[in-house]
C-alpha cells in the first residue's frame, strides 16, 4: 500500500468531513446498495470507525425490553428442536450416518433453535459469557445453549458453524425432493457480531493485520487478534436495525435468513460446513428469508434436514468475512415431494433450487459433490455455466418457454450473482478455507406470465 493513512492516522479534518458525508448519505439511504455509494461510504467508515471505543456507552442494558429466546422459552410451532450440546455438529454437516434428533411426518411444521458461531469460537475465547459481558450484555441475556455448546461440544470439523439437526422426515427416500418453507425467523438475542479474520475476506493479507498495533482499534480486536465488531439491535420506526459502534451513527435494516439449510449427503466422508453442495448446506442466499422456499434433492432415507449459520443481515459481498451473525429461531414446514410428483421444479430433483414470492432462484456450483471425487475444486466459469443451464432448463421444461426466447430472456431480464467470497490460501476471490468453491450464481428471474 502506498499509504497507511486510511487506517493508521486520520486527522480531525478528515473525521469531520467523513462524519458529515456519512450523516448526509445515511439520511438519504437506509441501506447502501449502489456499488459506487457503497465503496465511498465503506472507505469513510474504515477511516473513522476505530476512533471510538468498541464498548457502548454506559446506559440501559443491551437489548433492554427485548425478549430473549432461551431454549424452550417463548413461542414455538409444531415440533420444537433445541440446539443441545450433545446433538449439534460443529464445523461439519450431518451425513448418511447421522442419527436424527427428531422424526416428523411430511408436511410437519418444526421450530429449530440455532446458535451463531460468533461468540463461541476459539479466537473469541470460546466463552460466550465472558465475551458478551465485555460488551455490557447482562448474563441473563446470553443464551444458555450457546454457553453449553462452547463448554461441552466438540469443535471437530474444519468449518466454524454450529449446526442443529438433523431432522428425519417419514417417507422421504433418495430421489425425492424436500421442500423447505421458511415460515418464521425470530431473533433470539438483540445483538450480533461481524468479524474479519486473518487470511479471509476480500482483502486477505491486508486486514485485520493493518488494524493490529493501532491503539484506537484495540477494542475491536478479539483474543485471537482478529476483528469482531459487536453490533446491537435497536428498534426504529417499527423495524429492527443493526447499530454499530463509533463516533458516526451508522445503522441498517435487519433481514434475517439461515445461511445453512441442507439435507444429508450420501457419503461417509466428513463434509465441511463451509462450501455448499448439491445437498444444500452453506448456500448463504440472502433471499431465503421468511416467505421463501428451498427445494433440495434427497440423497438418504429420511432426508435428514439441518440448519444453522443464522444471519441477521448480510450485504452482497460480505467483504470483511462474515455477515451480522446472530442466533435465530427458525420455523419451517418440511414436505416430501416424490420423484415425478407435483410441488417442486424438475431441476430440484437433481440440484438445489429456491423461490420467493417474486423470484425463482436456480443455483450453480462448480463442485457440487463436496469432499467426494477429489475434494472441492474452484471454477467461476463452471459455476456460471451450471447456473445458466439450470435456469434455461427451468424456463423451458417447467414454464414452457421456447428455448431461444428463454435464453434471450435470461440475457435481458435476469441477474446472475456471485455468492460472497472467501479468500484464504489460494487468493481465489471465491474460495473457502479448504479451497472449495464459495460462490452461488443466482438467477433472480421475475415470473413470466404463464
Task: Classify the helix fraction into a percent range.
Answer: 10-25%
Poorly predicted ranges? 1-59, 421-450
Largest sheet: 8 strands, mixed
Gyration radius, in Å: 22 Å
Give the SSE order as H and E letters: HHHEEEEEHHEEEEEEEEEEEEEEEHHEEE
Question: Which architecture name of the largest domain does CATH use?
Answer: Sandwich
The fraction of residues assigned to DSSP E strands is 15-25%
Backbone shape? globular
- By oligomeric state, this entry counts as single chain
Q: Structural class of the helices, strands and pairings?
A: alpha+beta
SS elements, strand count = 23
Give the CATH superfamily of the largest domain. Answer: Acetamidase/Formamidase-like domains
> Please, how many helices?
7
Tell me the distance between the termini. 54 Å
CATH topology value of the largest domain: Jelly Rolls
**Average pLDDT taken over every residue:** 81
Which features characterize this protein?
single chain; 450 residues; Jelly Rolls; Endonuclease I-creI; eight-stranded mixed sheet; 18% helix; globular; disordered N terminus; disordered C terminus
Amino acid at each position: 500500500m502506498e499509504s497507511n493513512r486510511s487506517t493508521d492516522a486520520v486527522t480531525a479534518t478528515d473525521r469531520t468531513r467523513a462524519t458529515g458525508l456519512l450523516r448526509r448519505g445515511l439520511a438519504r439511504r437506509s441501506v447502501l446498495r449502489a456499488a459506487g455509494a457503497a465503496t465511498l461510504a465503506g472507505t469513510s467508515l474504515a477511516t473513522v470507525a476505530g476512533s471510538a471505543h468498541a464498548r457502548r456507552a454506559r446506559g440501559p442494558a443491551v437489548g433492554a425490553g427485548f425478549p430473549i429466546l432461551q431454549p424452550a422459552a417463548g413461542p414455538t410451532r409444531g415440533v420444537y428442536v433445541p440446539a443441545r450440546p450433545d446433538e449439534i455438529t460443529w464445523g461439519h454437516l450431518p451425513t448418511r450416518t447421522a442419527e436424527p434428533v427428531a422424526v416428523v411426518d411430511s408436511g410437519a411444521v418444526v421450530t429449530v433453535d440455532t446458535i451463531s458461531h460468533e461468540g463461541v469460537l476459539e479466537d473469541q475465547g470460546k466463552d460466550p459469557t465472558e465475551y458478551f459481558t465485555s460488551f455490557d450484555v447482562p448474563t441473563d441475556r446470553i443464551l444458555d445453549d450457546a454457553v453449553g455448546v462452547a463448554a461441552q461440544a466438540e469443535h471437530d470439523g474444519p468449518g466454524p458453524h454450529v449446526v442443529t439437526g438433523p431432522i428425519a422426515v417419514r417417507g422421504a427416500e433418495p430421489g425425492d425432493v424436500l421442500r423447505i418453507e421458511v415460515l418464521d425467523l425470530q431473533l433470539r438475542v438483540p445483538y450480533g457480531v461481524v468479524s474479519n479474520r486473518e487470511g479471509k475476506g476480500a482483502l486477505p493479507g491486508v486486514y485485520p493485520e493493518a488494524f493490529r498495533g493501532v491503539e484506537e482499534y484495540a477494542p475491536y480486536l478479539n483474543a485471537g487478534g482478529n476483528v469482531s465488531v459487536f453490533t446491537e439491535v435497536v428498534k426504529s420506526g417499527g423495524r429492527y436495525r443493526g447499530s454499530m459502534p463509533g463516533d458516526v451513527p451508522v445503522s441498517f435494516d435487519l433481514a434475517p435468513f439461515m445461511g445453512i439449510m441442507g439435507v444429508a449427503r450420501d457419503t461417509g466422508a466428513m463434509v465441511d460446513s463451509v462450501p455448499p453442495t448439491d445437498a444444500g448446506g452453506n448456500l448463504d442466499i440472502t433471499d431465503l428469508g421468511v416467505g421463501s422456499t428451498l427445494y433440495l434433492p434427497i440423497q438418504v432415507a429420511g432426508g435428514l434436514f439441518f440448519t444453522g449459520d443464522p444471519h441477521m443481515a448480510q450485504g452482497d459481498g460480505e467483504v470483511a468475512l462474515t455477515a451480522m451473525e446472530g442466533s435465530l429461531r427458525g420455523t419451517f414446514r418440511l414436505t416430501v415431494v416424490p420423484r415425478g410428483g407435483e410441488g417442486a421444479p424438475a431441476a430440484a430433483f437433481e440440484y438445489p433450487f429456491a423461490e420467493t414470492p417474486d423470484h425463482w432462484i436456480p443455483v450453480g456450483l462448480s463442485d457440487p459433490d463436496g469432499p467426494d471425487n477429489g475434494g472441492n475444486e474452484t471454477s467461476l466459469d463452471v459455476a456460471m455455466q451450471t447456473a445458466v443451464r439450470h435456469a434455461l432448463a427451468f424456463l423451458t421444461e417447467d414454464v414452457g418457454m421456447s428455448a431461444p426466447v428463454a435464453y434471450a430472456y435470461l440475457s435481458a431480464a435476469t441477474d446472475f450473482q456471485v455468492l460472497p467470497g472467501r479468500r484464504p490460501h489460494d487468493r481465489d476471490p471465491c474460495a473457502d478455507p479448504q479451497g472449495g468453491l464459495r460462490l452461488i450464481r443466482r438467477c433472480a428471474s421475475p415470473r413470466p406470465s404463464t
